[in-house]
Design a protein that fits this description.
474 residues, alpha/beta, Double Stranded RNA Binding Domain, pyruvate-formate lyase- activating enzyme, 3 domains, 9-stranded mixed beta sheet, 5-stranded mixed beta sheet, binds iron/sulfur cluster
Length: 474
């Protein structure tokens, strides 16, 4: 499909509105109205307008004046006009209205800090952004949960360490992840480079209060016992261990009693064991190469090893999964009673194998996704959990959200820090993205590490050079 911009150049904003109505299409900018669908988005003296043409014929239009010439307001009104014109032709439900950003709860926090009350926020997001009452309540509930954590964390820092190896690559994966089979002989060199980076930042870290530490990936428990021990000894030597110390043990097939013991011994206070689904057929289909029984076993082993906070991640909308499968997954989790559950909705990412083979799968439509979200919420609430952090991704099935649910006092501070962006996060390892936050000016500086494991190992000195930017900022 085609789009024409007149009087502005907000390409990304208009394309993300088109994606809401025509996901997985190809969007081409043009100068003239073409055969097929063409959206014209224009701006004249702060008045936005949108016209929708099908095979050259005008089918719908909408026009509205911006309330100010503020850039954000202009983008909003352009998006709104386009969405309302598109909706007349393709009347699909939009639970999140025209909000397409990654951090909806942060918008509520920002509005509070500008002095707006919750009722006013409700009115704004309903009228100006077309957000449904249900999603609006979710945004507000999450923002309420995040509020104290954010305030307590101002002036402190968090640290992320990436271990980009996994036993195999999942069908939907778009992360920096390398299959162990091919990379096994580089893992020790990778840890060497990581230790060099830890040693380099230790000076900056020592001057600050570390609030949370997170070892993610990939799958950190892909490391063997000896490698895991070496990594954690270096963490102790060069970084500070805060009360909240998370290590992902995402793939149950990588979990052993010995690794669980090592994690515990090094003061890991929160681990994440992720089934994604408890249906073996789906697990096979998505290339996880473990069974639901292995997940139950890993969970029990973790409890036996003394891990008191266990998170579990699940994904709704996996190929071929409906209400029966999701109910089964939630019932399985209910029996285990984890401290937190992160409920994802499937995102079809460009870098995933799923994107290439999408047509061969039976995928959930909007109304099924809504029902699956409803089932997950019913169970998390039954387990006494509250939604405490949330994010959205582009290309999610039905354009829904990922929500972290937890029992009382089991919020993961690191997850909130990432979402609210009020705290500096130093990221180490391949693909690490360090965020330096200046809360006085609301400015965020980023320092990126290279994504490739091979480049990270060979160019580690360059990564350290880049991190010199931390000087004076921390
Ligand atoms: S476990 Fe996570 S990081 Fe590893 S391949 Fe699967 S989705 Fe990617």
């Amino acid at each position: 499909m085609y789009y024409i911009l007149k009087g502005h150049n907000f390409i990304d904003d208009i394309v993300s509105i088109l994606m809401l109505f025509y996901p997985n299409d190809k969007y081409t900018q043009t100068e003239d109205i073409k055969d097929g669908i063409t959206l014209l988005s224009g701006l004249e003296d702060n008045r936005a307008y949108a016209e929708l043409y099908i095979d050259g014929e005008l089918k719908a239009e909408h026009s509205e004046a911006a309330e100010s010439s503020d850039r954000r307001e202009i983008k909003r009104v352009l998006g709104l006009c386009s969405a309302l014109a598109l909706k007349r032709v393709r009347n699909i439900p939009l639970a999140w209205g025209i909000l397409t950003g990654v951090r909806p709860a942060k918008l509520v926090s920002e509005a509070w800090s500008e002095g707006l009350g919750t009722d006013e926020i409700r009115r704004i997001f309903t009228r100006k952004y077309l957000v449904s009452p249900e999603k609006l309540e979710l945004m507000i509930r999450v923002a309420e949960q995040e509020k104290n954590i954010v305030e307590n964390g101002i002036g402190k820092i968090s640290i992320y360490i990436g271990i980009p190896f996994c036993p195999t690559r999942c069908l939907y994966c778009s992360f920096t992840s390398y299959p162990l089979e091919r990379y096994r002989n580089r893992v020790d060199e990778y840890i060497d480079a990581l230790i060099k980076e830890m040693s380099f930042v230790s000076g900056y870290v020592s001057k600050n209060e570390v609030e949370s530490l997170y070892i993610g990936g990939g799958t950190p428990t892909s490391l063997n016992e000896k490698q895991l021990e070496r990594l954690l000894c270096a963490v102790e030597k060069y970084l500070k261990i805060p009360a909240e110390f998370t290590a992902e043990a995402g793939r149950p097939d990588t979990v052993t009693p010995e690794k669980l013991r090592i994690l515990k011994e090094h003061n890991v206070s929160r681990i994440s064991i992720n089934p994604q689904t408890l249906n073996d057929d789906t697990l096979r289909l998505i290339g996880r190469e473990h069974t639901s029984a292995q997940f139950f076993e890993a969970f029990e082993l973790a409890r036996k090893a003394g891990h008191e906070h266990i998170n579990t991640d699940i994904i709704l909308g996996l190929p071929g999964e409906g209400e029966k499968e999701v109910t089964r997954t939630m019932q399985g989790l209910e029996k285990l009673s984890p401290e937190s559950i992160t409920v994802h909705t499937l995102a079809v990412k460009r870098a995933s194998r799923l994107k290439e083979t999408l047509e061969s799968y039976d995928m959930a439509d909007y109304s099924l996704m809504e029902r699956l979200i409803g089932i997950s919420r019913e169970y998390t609430e039954k387990m006494g959990m509250l939604p405490y952090y949330m994010y959205r991704q582009k290309n999610m099935a039905g354009n829904f959200e990922n929500v972290g649910w937890c029992k009382e006092k089991c919020q993961c501070i690191y997850n909130v820090a990432i979402m609210e962006e009020k705290q500096t996060v130093i990221a180490l390892g391949a693909g690490g993205s360090t965020k330096i936050v200046d809360t006085d000016t609301n400015r965020i500086e980023r320092i990126f590490n290279v994504k490739s494991v091979d480049d990270y190992i060979t160019r580690i000195d360059e990564m350290l050079e880049r991190k010199k930017a931390l000087e004076g900022m921390l």
